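dumping this here before i forget
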Amino acid sequence: MPHFELFPSPPKDDLQVPASPPIQVGSEVAIQNILWFITLRWIAVAVFLAVEITAALFGPALRTNHGIEVPNQWPWILAVTLALANLCFFIHARRLTIQTPSKSSVYLNIWSQIVVDLLTLTVVVHFLGSLTTFICFAYLFHTVLACIFFPPRLSLAVTFMVCLLYVGCVAAELANIIPPASIYAEQANHSLRAELFNSPLRLSFHVGSAIGIFLVVWYLASNLSSAVRQRDHQLLIINERLLSADRERTQHMLHTTHELKAPFAAIQSYVQLLMKGYCGPLTDDSRDVLAKIDARSQRLSNQIREMLQLANLRSATAGARSFEQLDVAQILSRALAASQAQAQARDISFRTDLQKANVQGVAEQLEMMLANLLANAVQYSHPSGTVTVSSRQLEDGSARVQISDQGIGIRPDALPRIFEEYYRSKEAAQHNPMCTGLGLAIVKHIAQTHNIALRVESELAQGTTFILTFPRPKNIIHPDAQHTSMRDS
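structure:
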């Protein structure tokens, strides 16, 4: 059977767009970046441990057969040191998320991580071969990341730190302060200092080219990052202006809509007086005209009511309402009672099985959602049809409500669009011209705010079933086997 599932997601109207650039030291985004770097560092710790295990298992074979000096002991030391430092960074970052962080606290965490990372990388560069391998270009990772997350001045400071650490490592090896090392066994054993002192030009070119590449990469990455940040900031400002204009337009529309509510109610009242003969007898033609005016006014009144309902649901005050523990069977009973008049007018009967089921939410909104679904089931059923309604508590504590009709059904290509505002399929418009296209949009919004999963199953000319799965409420008390049921209408 064709179906469509609507899973909970935050309503678009609740999105808040900042009016400032997203990357700022001390901002929430900066703290998220701190936590992201901490996650990456755990990966680095795992890599060091993997290298140590590889050295223990395959070290002699790699040295004998391939002349590769597999690192030994120092990866383990770096892994432990980096893990302890990362744990400290994580504890400090968690404190920043609990309380409003000061700019200095965020700076301390960020720069401590940078210094620890660069020192660790310098140790790796030394042991793998600062002049005999390309490992020194691993510094570029930090240079590029600094350009992405920092303004040019701070990213340049990181790049200078990279240059100083690399030059310091090479100088310490040449001065024999630390013995030269390399991953290639034959190059680690001979005197690297003597070879380089015999060719100062080679040394200068080797180190100078690396530093030049660091600076060029910083220049390109910082300029591109600055341009992207500036454009992103401009787009955010433009987006905020568009949202503000849209809010003003919506408010004006709602104000106008609210003003129209009373005149249409008055028109309907006067039409009813005329049709009942209080102002004298009517001809058949006059009665037909008044009937058309009454139907049109009724449709516009319904549309105004649903527009105001949707606007109230989207307002900040509606979203701030606290949830309470409710029995969805009782809410369904009230919604069914409110739908009885409409059902009787079309000779529709309800078949119900309402078992007690605990949920959490706002009672008025849940009743509005269920009433809209029942109204849909009645409106799109054939005369003398039956609508089946059930509720029950599931074993995992969640609740399920199912509303089924045997009406006109929905085409498979129309299913994904039925929750769009003002959308009506061709069959729905022909079957019920009074439909406004807002009822299921209201259902969608309430389902999203209550984290309700909504599944729709339908076959054209066979009927439609709406299945609502409510999340398990906190501190739920599972209902007993007793349940309430309504007599068939």
